[in-house]
């Protein structure tokens, strides 16, 4: 039988082929998903009514923390630490009160976590895009490493080595690591506007806290190692009675000392002025208004603690800036100097009690006696010092008591160079000074290029450097870890802006 012969078609198959297809029945919607959604909404409403509001706050905070941790992890794995640096700029003043655990003798702090995360981020960074550090700045880093070596060798000679080691790590090592990261990895020209906005916001709320402390006459964010002082009360404590005109609180804001509060404002002021020039008029109108508010807040933060050295440094900076100006601009600087003097005299007349201890010659005599004590201690330990952060303990020896015009030394160095010289000896003092001098030379070399970027970057550095060291001759600010982190971050950002200029990059690649 031939297999190609088709099988006969049956009646049923014929009927099937000619019968039109009937339309498919539309399935009825399943009410189950809608029911589940409704029950979910009802459950949320019941929970909102029954659960305490505190629980919802904790849940919301937990979600926020998880989101932040996820963002940090993503930034680390991508090797991009710019977001971390920008976030730190915004919140670091509040970290000392809100983000330290435990409150007493904190083991976990914002600064420690921040620096550690940045170091981990470098492991995932694109090393092909790393910015080479110029020779002079690298030499400064080498000398700083030598200083760190002799400083840590001096730690065991201190009465409390653990505290000295913490100071060594947070005040001297962390700022250097942060500056190194910025110089190598941070692309500042992409974030100029963001840095400006965040710095304005930061200075605004820090100044607001300081004003609040003056108005309420109390420390709003007290820290375990912090204290608040007043002008007009020689004991340095808040009087239990008396009106507002009898004394004036010298606020410390969110920081442990009013020294850091004033210097944070001073550094922020010149950093904002630098950022405005770097943006070259590209700020929208609202950001220009924010700039005025931010610089005003930074200036208020600078003068609120009533430090004579801070006012002196402002006058010196204005006088130096006059050398760079001509005509009307020079006259404006002179008017600013006269304005500062007028405000100081007006406040002295209005609140004379608050200025008694600020203008008392006994303060000068006490500082002279202190320098005599510093010199005597150095001559007894010229090579390796008395131990890092051990000046006060060593000064308790009666043979070091110094007197000038019947006033004794206060047993604290009140001087950056004096503290380093006495505590680490010449072995630590020499590399410390050389490193600072090389930082100055690194910026000086950039200023010789005669480009617009290098000129105003040099001025910003010069003003910040002068203010830091003028105040460092009467205050031991080199030991303030919160200030050093901000100071070194700003200097490294200014330097990175200069060396990342296209003209500088071409010049450097042509060097032999």
Can you give a write-up of this model?
The protein has 512 residues and is mainly α. The chain has one domain (75-509). The chain is built from 19 helices and four strands. The model is unreliable at 1-22, 233-237, 240-245 and 505-512 (pLDDT under 50).
How would you summarize this macromolecular structure in one to three sentences?
This protein has 512 residues and is mainly α. The protein has helices at 11-18, 32-50, 53-78, 82-98, 110-122, 135-153, 161-185, 192-216, 258-279, 285-303, 308-324, 328-350, 356-359, 361-380, 391-395, 416-447, 452-472, 481-499, 502-509, and strands spanning 229-231, 248-250, 403-404, 407-408.
């Amino acid at each position: 039988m031939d297999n190609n012969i088709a099988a006969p078609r049956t009646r049923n198959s014929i009927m099937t082929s000619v019968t039109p297809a009937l339309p498919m029945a539309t399935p009825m919607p399943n009410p189950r998903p809608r029911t589940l959604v409704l029950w979910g909404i009802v459950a949320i409403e019941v929970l909102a009514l029954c659960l305490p509001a505190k629980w919802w706050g904790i849940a919301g905070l937990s979600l926020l923390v998880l989101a932040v941790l996820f963002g940090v992890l993503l930034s680390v794995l991508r090797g991009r630490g710019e977001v971390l640096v920008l976030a730190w700029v915004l919140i670091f003043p509040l970290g000392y009160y809100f983000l330290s655990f435990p409150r007493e003798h904190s083991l976990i702090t914002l600064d420690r976590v921040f620096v550690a995360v940045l170091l981990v981020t470098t492991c995932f960074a694109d090393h092909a895009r790393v910015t080479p550090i110029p020779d002079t700045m690298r030499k400064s880093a080498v000398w700083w490493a030598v200083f760190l070596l002799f400083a840590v060798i001096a730690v065991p000679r201190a009465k409390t080595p653990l505290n000295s080691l913490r100071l060594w790590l947070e005040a001297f090592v962390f700022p250097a690591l942060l500056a190194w990261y910025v110089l190598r990895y941070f692309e500042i020209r992409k974030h100029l506007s963001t840095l400006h906005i965040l710095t304005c916001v930061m200075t605004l709320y820090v100044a607001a806290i300081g004003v609040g402390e003056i108005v309420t006459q109390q420390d709003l964010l007290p820290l375990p190692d912090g204290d608040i002082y007043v002008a007009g009360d020689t004991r340095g404590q808040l009087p239990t009675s008396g009106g507002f005109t009898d004394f004036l609180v010298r606020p410390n804001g969110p920081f442990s000392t009013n020294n850091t509060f004033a210097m944070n404002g001073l550094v922020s002021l010149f950093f904002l002025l630098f950022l405005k020039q770097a943006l070259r008029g590209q700020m929208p109108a609202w950001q220009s208004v924010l700039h005025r508010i931010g610089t005003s807040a930074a200036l208020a933060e600078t003068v609120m603690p009533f430090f004579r050295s801070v006012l002196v440094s402002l006058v010196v900076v204005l006088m130096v800036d006059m050398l760079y100006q001509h005509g009307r601009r020079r006259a404006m600087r002179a008017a600013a100097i006269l304005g500062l003097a007028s405000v100081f005299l007006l406040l002295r007349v209005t609140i004379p009690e608050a200025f008694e201890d600020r203008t008392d010659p006994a303060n000068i005599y006490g500082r002279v006696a202190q320098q005599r004590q510093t010199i005597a201690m150095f001559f007894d330990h010229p090579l390796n010092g008395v131990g890092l952060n051990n000046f006060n303990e060593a000064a308790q020896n009666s043979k070091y008591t110094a007197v000038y015009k019947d006033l004794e030394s206060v047993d604290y160095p009140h001087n950056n160079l004096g503290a380093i010289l006495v505590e680490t000896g010449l072995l630590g003092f020499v590399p410390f000074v050389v490193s600072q001098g090389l930082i100055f030379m690194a910026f000086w070399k950039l200023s010789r290029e005669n480009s617009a970027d290098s000129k105003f970057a040099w001025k910003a550095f010069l003003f910040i450097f002068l203010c830091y060291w003028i105040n460092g001759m009467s205050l031991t600010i080199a030991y303030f870890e919160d200030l050093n982190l901000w100071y070194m971050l700003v200097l490294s950002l200014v330097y990175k802006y200069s060396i990342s200029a296209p003209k500088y990059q071409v010049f450097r690649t042509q060097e032999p």
